[in-house]
Specification:
Elements: E1 22-28, E2 32-38, E3 47-50, E4 74-80, E5 85-91, H1 95-100, E6 104-110, E7 119-128, H2 144-147, E8 156-159, E9 166-171, E10 174-181, E11 188-193, E12 195-202, E13 205-212, E14 217-219, E15 224-231, E16 238-244, E17 250-261, E18 289-296, E19 304-307, E20 310-313, H3 314-319, E21 324-326, E22 338-340, E23 345-352, E24 358-362, E25 367-370, E26 376-380, E27 382-385, E28 390-396, E29 401-407, H4 410-414, E30 418-423
Parallel strand pairs: 1-6, 7-10, 9-17, 18-23, 22-30
Antiparallel strand pairs: 2-4, 3-5, 5-6, 7-8, 10-15, 11-14, 11-16, 12-13, 12-15, 16-17, 18-21, 19-20, 23-28, 24-27, 24-29, 25-26, 25-28, 29-30
This protein binds CU-O-CU linkage and copper (II) ion.
């Protein structure tokens, strides 16, 4: 793929069906999705369907819900789609490397009655760390320096596989933009220019009331955000989605070139999207609280943590390439972090004792954040926990099986920040 601008070499990639990102998979809410993974890589792999309230056996987590699929073999995924919304799929075997090399794509589950928009656009936001001389991905995926700090940040940012992604639209046209952060570790700060927008869904799940976009939007790794935007710029004016670059300037991420006019006036606030089933999280106030401190990393370290059934000191953990722990456990332990009975409401209090932000993702079920005053946030599957902050998530454990709870900064997940819960 030509990821870098013309004049730079092309990049050898790993891909689904030959493109980066992989093909957009669209299916109807309530239908069943079937896809055969045929592994023509030279390494084992598996596919995770991020955010789908899925049958556990189809969750794609090598070593927990299935064996990784060896080279030359295949695996049939088939599962029901209870929820409409914006989801994505990506490799879940050695994800740090496989996702960085290109193994991800959008998964869009359509409402029976779609909202009143003129167009529906998927914007998969990614970054790539390329060697400018060779075009190759910089392949020190296990670099301790990156893993123990913020994770791997690319030197090129793009949308749908292009650093110069653009689309054209007419003035007062209404677009649904489905933003997906498929980057390895980068948290994007985003802003609209020449567009008037509302956030209508987070991580696939509709908000009760669309929220006008007035400020910077924050999209952490693996998070999604559905916006409904009206093109309010005049023909010839610049419009689009901007991102905050490392040097604190706003750069264009997706340019919208305004050509012609769709209507003489914009449409006004959109209606909320139809609710998905089982969106209520009940009995939160009386549910037991499970403590999950997020621990480790550069500058803080750990006194000790369990790893592969042994209690190791910080020195020993570092020798094993482990820099992080969740509640004293580095990597998957024999025993789950918690065993919940089906239908039980659970609360997990994640206290970030590190100096880095972490995008914590629960598989199989969506949760709501619970503030100290007891109020509940929107349904999500991935939440950004900032340094020295405490974020409590509450969810109904209504999906049977073994579910990962991990940081979606993929280098963190690979070096300790992965745990699991059991719903029995
Ligand atoms: Cu999007 Cu465990 O992953
Ligand atoms: Cu992390």
């Amino acid at each position: 793929m030509q990821l870098a601008p013309d004049g730079y070499p092309a990049t050898p990639v790993w891909s689904y069906d030959g493109t980066i990102p992989g093909p957009v998979i669209r299916a109807a809410q309530g239908s069943r999705l079937q896809r055969r993974l045929v592994n023509t890589l030279e390494v084992p792999t598996s596919v995770h369907w991020h955010g789908i309230r899925i049958d556990n056996a189809m969750d794609g987590v090598a070593g927990l819900t299935q064996n990784a699929v060896p080279p030359g073999e295949s695996f049939d995924y088939a599962f029901d789609l209870p929820d409409a919304g914006t989801y994505w799929y990506h490799a879940h075997t050695n994800s740090m490397e496989q996702v960085a090399r290109g193994l991800s794509g959008a998964l869009i589950i359509e409402e029976a009655t779609p909202p009143d928009v003129d167009r529906d656009e998927v914007l998969m936001i990614d970054d790539w760390l390329l060697d400018p001389d060779t075009g190759l991905f910089v392949d020190d995926f296990a670099a301790p320096m990156t893993r123990s700090h913020g994770g791997q940040i690319g030197n090129l940012v793009g949308v749908n596989g292009r650093y110069d992604y653009s689309l054209s639209a007419r003035q007062n046209e209404r677009l649904r933009l489905r933003l997906i952060n498929s980057a390895n570790a980068q948290i994007f700060g985003l802003k609209l220019e020449g567009l008037t927008g509302w956030t209508v869904a987070l991580d696939g799940m509709p908000l009760d009331t669309p929220e006008p976009v007035t400020d910077t939007l924050v999209l952490a790794p693996a998070q999604r955000m559905d916006l409904i935007v009206d093109i309010t710029a005049e023909e010839g004016e610049t419009a689009g989605l901007l991102f905050a670059a490392a040097d604190d300037t706003w750069r264009v991420l997706a340019e919208v070139s305004v050509e012609g006019r769709a209507a003489s006036v914009p449409r006004g606030a959109p209606q909320p999207l139809p609710r998905n089933p089982r969106m209520e999280v009940v009995g939160v106030d009386t549910a037991p609280v499970l403590e999950m401190p997020l621990q480790g990393g550069a500058m803080r370290g750990l006194e000790s943590a369990a790893f592969n059934g042994q209690k190791l000191t910080w020195q020993e953990l570092v020798q094993q390439g482990q820099f992080w722990a969740l509640a004293g456990q580095a990597g998957l332990g024999e025993a789950p972090f918690a065993t919940l009975s089906r239908g039980e409401t659970a609360r997990i209090r994640m206290t970030n004792d590190t100096i880095f932000p972490h995008a914590m993702h629960l598989h199989g079920m969506h949760f709501r954040t619970r503030k100290e005053d007891g109020s509940l946030g929107p349904l999500r599957d991935t939440v950004l926990v900032m340094p020295n902050e405490m974020t409590e998530i509450a969810f109904v454990a209504d999906n049977l099986g073994k579910w990962l709870l991990h940081c979606h900064m993929l280098g963190h997940a690979a070096s300790g920040m992965t745990n699991w819960i059991m719903v029995a």
